[in-house]
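Posting for a labmate who doesn't have an account.
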Amino acid sequence: MSVSSHLNPEPERRLWILHGNMRHAVEWTDIKLGALAVFAAAQMALLKLLAPGGVPAYPALALLAAVVLIGLFAFSPLIEAQRQLSWIDPRMDRRHAGDCLLAPQDIAKYPQLELVILLDRYLGGGVTATPYYEDIVGQIVSGARIATRKRRLFLAACAPAGLVQLGLLWRLLGLY
């Protein structure tokens, strides 16, 4: 047992709350990604009906197809890899003293060992008492990375979807 284990008799409950918050962040981002992909697919069908052969329809259809593909990729098992994915994960060297240890995007920046030590101080001690608590922290880090990856993919899908919406608004206003 660590010296600080007497300070907080229930680190497990607090760690499970953090773990639940990470799972909730993943689920909420999944809902948003799914809604955006369904919206893009429906808009593709509508665009194909309203402007079947127009030149402006092809870039819009391509952008909406990209949104659907990004949404499908966000649901793939690859996104839930335990290891660091350099092209989508936040960089480990971008940690700040003011990082919030409750936000997935801040937790995802830390390696598990460093986060165990930080959470031990942050939660009032007891986290380093057993390997069981350290395994819970590992699950928290994994959930935070998955939530951050999915959030970044959602933001990447919002950009082309927004461009299509601007184009459609431009078309509806008769400026095109």
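Reply:
Got it, the structure tokens are right above this. The longest helix spans residues 131-172.
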